[in-house]
Design brief:
The structure is a single chain. The protein has one domain: Creatine Amidinohydrolase (Alpha-Beta Complex). It has six helices and nine strands; from the N terminus they run ααβββααββαββββα. The protein has a four-stranded antiparallel sheet with strand order 4-7-8-9, sandwiched between helices. Strands 1-2-3 form a three-stranded antiparallel sheet, covered by helices on one side.
């Protein structure tokens, strides 16, 4: 296996392990406290940088909790100071949470983001929405193949959303391409030999990732090569029931000399939170 792809897989596993350790016993924990806990565990891990690449939010980590009508989960960008973790919003039995962290491997300088939604209440409609949205985003990851354009993957996703009465939560477009209608994620810079990250300082590495990643958008005709990695992610709302929260899922798709791997890594997270209603397919 390519050392670069192997690093992405291992770093994503680390991301999930940090999340699991941070989520133990989180009853009534505040956004602020869980955010600090995740950053502390990232800082203590020798294989990744002490903070994530996507900042702000502070440390490249986001924690958002809210109760119905879940307006806090409808953010346009996590960079907006309004959505910085605070002490007011807490993870109670009625809360839904969106959690995201963006660690970077120290050796290869490749990212391995993970993002997910947590809920352990009794509302069956919310449970079904989380399961459905998870399944739909995973189907998009499963559909990706070598030789496919990112725009083609987006077309497939758009049709899937429509057929399942889902819509992506509106996000602020920060790309120079204002014509895009759908954003499904981005490439992982440094995941193939022809796009290595050679910068040394973490600030330079973060800037390289920010500026060199290829967005998985409906106007991007980049063709997926035989060795490559990228995220497949979406925040989805229920068109038939606007009372449902926006559910967020980040997968990673890796191709290694033609062999495909989908990085899920959510199983232990769901067990830890008490989300036994979720069915996941592990790595």
């Amino acid at each position: 296996m390519s050392e670069l792809i192997d690093a992405v897989i291992k770093t994503r596993k680390i991301s999930a392990e940090i999340a699991v350790k941070s989520l133990i016993g989180i009853n009534s924990i505040s956004e602020f406290k869980l955010h600090k806990l995740i950053i502390a565990k990232m800082s203590n891990c020798p294989d990744i940088f002490p903070e994530g690449w996507y900042a702000p939010p502070e440390g490249g980590v986001s924690v958002l909790f809210d109760k119905t009508p879940f307006k806090r989960l409808l953010y346009g960008s996590l960079r907006d100071p309004e959505y910085a973790p605070d002490t007011e919003h807490k993870f109670t039995i009625e809360s839904v949470g969106n959690i995201y962290l963006s660690p970077v491997n120290k050796k290869t300088k490749t990212l391995a983001d993970i993002g997910f939604t947590v809920y352990r209440g009794e509302n069956e409609k919310i449970k079904q929405h989380l399961k459905k949205s998870y399944d739909i985003v995973r189907k998009i990851a499963e559909h990706a193949q070598i030789g496919m354009k990112f725009s083609e993957l987006c077309k497939f996703a758009s049709e899937l959303f429509i057929n399942n009465n889902l819509k992506p939560t509106k996000r602020i477009i920060i790309s120079s391409d204002q014509k895009q209608n759908l954003n499904l994620g981005h490439s992982i810079p440094g995941s193939s030999e022809n796009n290595l990250i050679t910068e040394n300082s973490f600030q330079e590495i973060k800037e390289h990732i920010r500026t060199k990643r290829v967005s998985v958008v409906d106007t991007e005709d980049f063709i997926i090569p035989s060795t490559y990695a990228f995220t497949v992610e979406s925040r989805l709302e229920d068109l038939n029931n606007p009372q449902m929260p926006s559910a967020s899922w980040h997968f990673v798709v890796c191709f290694n000399e033609g062999e495909k791997t989908i990085l899920d890594n959510f199983g232990e997270i769901f067990k830890t939170v008490g989300m036994n209603y979720m069915n996941t397919k592990q790595l």
